[in-house]
Inverse folding.
């Protein structure tokens, strides 16, 4: 009988196995990964997490059917660590092994770490670099994707979920990122599509490259699937860390406080001139946000998609807040289908995770046109109404210039359970803009006037004073105050302090039926 292995020999065997499994697909495949400008699964995790904080899970799992004693790992690295000292769970597909394809064992590893994230209440980051379902595993790989989608759905609104696309993500693999809260894509290497260029060419005859079809630019600007398109893998993961800093770990907690030396009572004289008095002159609403947010630190979300509305995260008095702001630089700040979709999802995320909402309003209305009507602007526009009405977090709105018709209502108005609604003296609230209203209401009077154009101008000013003035709206109690623009930061921070213990509950129900 052979002597049993000593403790030292067993420890050496363990170290050998772990070292072998940590090599992924081996030096040649790692070299090929680097040659594509991509990092390995473990290198990405090391960049994402605080140094030395990663604890790997299931490091010794082998592919099903492996020969006894085989030293080949599976195509995903899973575990947990910390970001800025707070727990975060992570899985990172390893493209050097089986092209990062999802097998039965890969799915089980991912599901285990997802389950742990849910049980312990910590964010989950999934780094995608995968060829999709492993063909050899047949229905088992499909089952794995399905169970991951179901877990993503159950985790939605419980823990923050972030997807990071740093390589291919094709076929069924794309639906998990679509369910998660935020999707990052690395420019040049991250790609997502249901069917690739070869299939499209065979079925429709269309010629398209991988990058044109599903690259970061395509999804950040056209489809809206990607919230962030970032150049470089290290830069992408740095931005993921930054985004996580605004969130609580789960839906039962408040976002972490970040002490700041930025005076909460700071006054900004620039705010008197940034917004033009003329209702049709454009300006960049991000200049307003930059001046009122702590330390000018604003992280815009979906920057390249539906630019007629701006959403993103900042801090006010050290507290995380979500900003939603009409952007007059694009489509005059009007709301269209994509703007409604973009902002409604953002509002619902903030509500899920106890992040107060700050809404900056300057909106002429919903975008008119046949394509908008046929595309479902009624249904899509209602999503934002639904999201604001449903939200129970503190909701503070500031009317910068104008808000007409249904677009006034949708932008966190008092009538959608807004908590505090302020206006600058330049603010106007009306059923429609003065020019359009006068053309309808006073058509006959202007036709009879000796100088129709002069009379029209008189009537426009009269309408503006009589119906659109912020003091008329404040007189009805629909605005809580008309404020000095320079004091906007102080007014918002004071309102946030007043509302920090807000307790509001929606009627008991399984869930609402948002117009999808």
């Amino acid at each position: 009988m052979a002597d049993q292995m000593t403790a030292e020999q067993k420890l050496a065997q363990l170290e050998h196995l772990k070292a072998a499994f940590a090599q992924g697909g081996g030096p040649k495949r790692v070299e090929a990964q680097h040659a594509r400008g991509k990092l390995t699964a473990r290198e990405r995790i090391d960049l994402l997490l605080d140094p030395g904080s990663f604890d790997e899970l299931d490091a010794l799992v082998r592919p099903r059917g492996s020969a006894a004693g085989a030293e080949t790992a599976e195509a995903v690295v899973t575990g947990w660590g910390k970001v800025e000292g707070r727990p975060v769970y992570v899985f990172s597909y390893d493209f050097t092994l089986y092209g990062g394809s999802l097998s039965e064992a890969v799915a089980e590893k991912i599901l285990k770490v997802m389950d742990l994230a849910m049980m312990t209440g910590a964010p989950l980051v999934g780094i995608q670099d995968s060829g999709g379902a492993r063909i050899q595993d047949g229905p088992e790989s499909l089952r794995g994707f399905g169970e991951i989608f179901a877990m993503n759905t159950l985790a939605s609104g419980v823990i923050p979920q972030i997807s990071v696309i740093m390589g291919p993500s094709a076929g069924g693999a794309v639906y998990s990122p679509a369910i998660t809260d935020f999707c990052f894509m690395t420019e040049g290497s991250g790609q997502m599509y249901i069917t690739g260029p070869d299939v499209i060419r065979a079925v429709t005859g269309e010629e398209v490259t991988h990058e044109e079809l599903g690259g970061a630019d395509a999804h950040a600007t056209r489809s809206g699937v990607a919230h962030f398109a970032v150049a470089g893998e290290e830069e992408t993961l740095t931005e993921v860390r930054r985004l996580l800093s605004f969130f609580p770990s789960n839906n039962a907690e408040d976002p972490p406080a970040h002490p700041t030396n930025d005076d909460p009572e700071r006054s900004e004289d620039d705010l008197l001139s940034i917004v033009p008095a003329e209702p049709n002159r454009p300006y960049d609403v991000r200049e307003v946000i930059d001046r009122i947010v702590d330390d000018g630190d604003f992280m815009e979300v979906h920057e390249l998609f539906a630019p007629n509305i701006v959403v993103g995260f900042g801090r006010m008095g050290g507290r995380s807040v979500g900003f939603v702001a009409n952007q007059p630089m694009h489509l005059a700040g009007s709301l269209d289908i994509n703007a409604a979709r973009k902002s409604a999802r953002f509002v619902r995320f903030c509500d899920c995770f106890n992040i107060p909402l700050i809404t900056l309003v300057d909106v002429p209305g919903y975008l008119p046109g046949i394509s908008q009507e046929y595309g479902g602007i009624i249904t899509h526009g209602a999503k934002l109404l639904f999201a604001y009405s449903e939200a129970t977090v503190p909701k503070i709105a500031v009317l910068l210039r104008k808000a007409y018709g249904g677009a006034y209502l949708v932008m966190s108005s008092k009538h959608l359970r807004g908590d505090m609604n302020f206006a600058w003296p330049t603010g106007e609230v009306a059923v429609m803009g003065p020019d359009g209203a006068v053309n309808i209401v006073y058509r006959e009077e202007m036709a009879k006037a000796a100088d129709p154009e002069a009379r029209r101008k008189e009537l426009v000013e009269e309408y503006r004073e009589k119906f659109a003035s912020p003091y008329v709206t404040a007189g009805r109690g629909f605005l809580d105050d008309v404020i000095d623009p320079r004091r906007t930061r102080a007014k918002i921070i004071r309102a946030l302090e007043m509302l920090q213990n807000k307790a509001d509950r929606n009627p008991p129900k399984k869930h609402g039926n948002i117009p999808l």
The radius of gyration is 27 Å. The chain has two domains: 14-244, 271-432+469-499. The mean pLDDT is 93.
